[in-house]
Design goal:
about 500 residues; alpha/beta; 7-stranded mixed beta sheet; globular
């Protein structure tokens, strides 16, 4: 029997859950606080330029990938060609190139460290083998940590003899494996890995869960994509599907109160409108969830969820730039990391993505839009004086690093604005500008993750703070789990 489902928040997780349930025949209402879909994978326009708000590199679009499976189920294919050269990684003493082909990639890495060739090849052989085993679980996609007998049965049913090989690594970090391979004291190699991991796992090799790190280092080889226009295209396709399936999508609706009503739920938005539902999925930041609920109900949220709601994550400082490509020797590549060697945050490491020439959805002919982001700690932004000083310092630090690599970059700029934490809070609803989810350390990954089940019957959560973690793939997966729990079927 179709259910009335309310989804709060049109980030990738909420959109995924809403689209799947609407396609399944349920009566879905999706409320979004802003005027744009996609959350941190949304967009905004300035004059003739379009900028991705945050996420830019398309993943999970290969055959069997998470997003590909969702779009196939919805009948909304997004056919794209994977990048053969994924990104440049510029470090103080080396310029690495991440190649889709695994052998080419390892060969290029080895060329920088010939004395360590056997150790590096053995390390990557192990990483790729581990990732291939973990990836066999992405078909059934069991939820962690299992919270019901059905979820335990699904997990048990997904386990195969080959998964026994993962057990010795469950409590290992990537740093442990680097030491085992004799690579712990190869700083430049390790710094390169840290640069990849901070962007995907929100932490570096020393603390990241090895099993998740193996997948993170391998997944680019499965397929990394440039999406014309940007990742907001994911949101558009899912939004279209929700409406085509009879769902209701309302923007500029901020839910202020969520309470039990009989056997179901009643939500109230900032305009006083009320919405009844049999089940609710919250894709808003978990920091906001306790405040939506009456205190006596909030106290029944699961302990990891309550603890997460009071925990800090990274903030970010983002530059949104439009350039005149004719003023540069050659157009900017679509994806590039730059590390100065002074750490993984505060402008010393940043990810730079540019629109491809000819992508007229993002910029007129002869121009490119560029999104540049660095991790930053919330404590640097907690007073007005520190806020302004940090914004100026990080902006200048990143621009100087770019100018060093691309002489004339500053002169090519025709538009520049910053996205500091308060901007992220205002436009994406992220308290204090917290983005990216929790670092995937042993303390917060896998069985120590936050479940999509809130602890209150009929109330589910999804997004980058929920298992399996950050990124569009992680957020979508949490949305899949929430949808499956409500539909009581696998769906995809």
């Amino acid at each position: 029997m179709p259910q009335n489902v309310l989804v709060i928040g049109a980030g990738i997780g909420g959109l995924t859950a809403a689209a799947l349930l609407a396609k399944n025949g349920d009566h879905v209402t999706l409320l979004e606080a802003s005027s744009e879909l996609g959350g941190c994978a949304g967009k905004f326009k300035r004059h003739k330029f379009l900028f991705p708000a945050g996420a830019t590199l398309g993943m999970g679009l290969e055959d069997g990938g998470i997003h590909e499976r969702v779009f196939r189920f919805l009948g909304k294919p997004l056919p794209l060609e994977p990048l053969e050269t994924v990104m440049e990684m510029i470090h103080p003493d080396h310029k690495f190139v991440f190649m889709k082909d695994r052998k080419q990639h390892v060969d290029k890495i080895v060329s920088h460290f010939p004395a360590y060739e056997p150790k590096i090849r053995a390390f990557y052989k192990e990483v790729y083998a581990t990732a291939s085993i973990v990836r066999t679980l992405m078909g059934p996609l069991p939820a962690l940590p299992p919270a019901t007998a059905k979820e335990w049965a699904a997990l048990t049913g997904a386990i195969r003899p080959v998964h026994v090989k993962l057990l010795p690594h469950f409590n290992e970090t990537l740093g442990n494996r680097l030491e085992r391979h004799g690579l712990g004291e190869l700083p430049a190699f390790r710094h390169m890995l840290d640069g990849l991991l901070i962007d995907s796992m929100q932490t570096g090799s020393e603390d990241v869960s090895y099993l998740l790190a193996a997948v993170a280092l391998d997944i680019y080889h499965e397929g990394a994509y440039y999406v014309p226009g940007g990742l907001y295209r994911f949101s558009e396709l899912m939004g279209e599907s929700i409406k085509e399936s009879g769902g209701v999508l309302k923007k500029r609706r901020t839910v202020t109160q969520l309470e039990k009503s009989g056997k179901g739920w009643m939500a109230t938005d900032h305009r006083g409108n009320q919405y009844e539902a049999d089940a609710v999925i919250v894709n808003a930041p978990i920091h906001l969830l306790p405040g939506m609920l009456p205190p006596e109900l909030a106290s029944h949220l699961k302990k990891p969820l309550l603890e997460g709601a009071t925990s800090e994550t990274w903030t970010t400082m983002t530059l949104y730039i439009a350039i005149d490509s004719s003023k540069l020797p050659q157009p900017l590549p679509p994806f590039r990391q730059i590390s100065t060697g002074a750490g993984m945050a505060e402008g010393a490491h940043f990810f730079m993505s540019a629109s491809l020439p000819g992508d007229l959805l993002r910029a007129p002919d002869g121009f490119q839009t560029v999104t540049i982001s660095t991790h930053s700690k919330a404590g640097f932004w907690n007073t007005k004086e520190k806020y302004e000083a940090t914004r100026e310092t990080l902006s200048e630090r990143m621009l100087q690093a770019i100018e060093k690599q691309i002489p004339g970059f500053r002169e090519s700029i025709v538009h520049l604005e910053t996205g500091a934490p308060k901007a992220w809070e205002r436009y994406t609803g992220r308290p204090n500008g917290f983005v990216g989810g929790f670092p995937q350390t042993l303390d917060s990954a896998l069985f120590n993750s936050i479940s999509h089940r809130s602890g209150i019957p009929g109330l589910y959560v999804c997004g980058d703070h929920i298992f399996p973690g950050g990124g569009t793939i992680g957020a979508a997966t949490s949305g899949i789990h929430a949808a499956r729990s409500i539909a009581s079927k696998r769906l995809i």
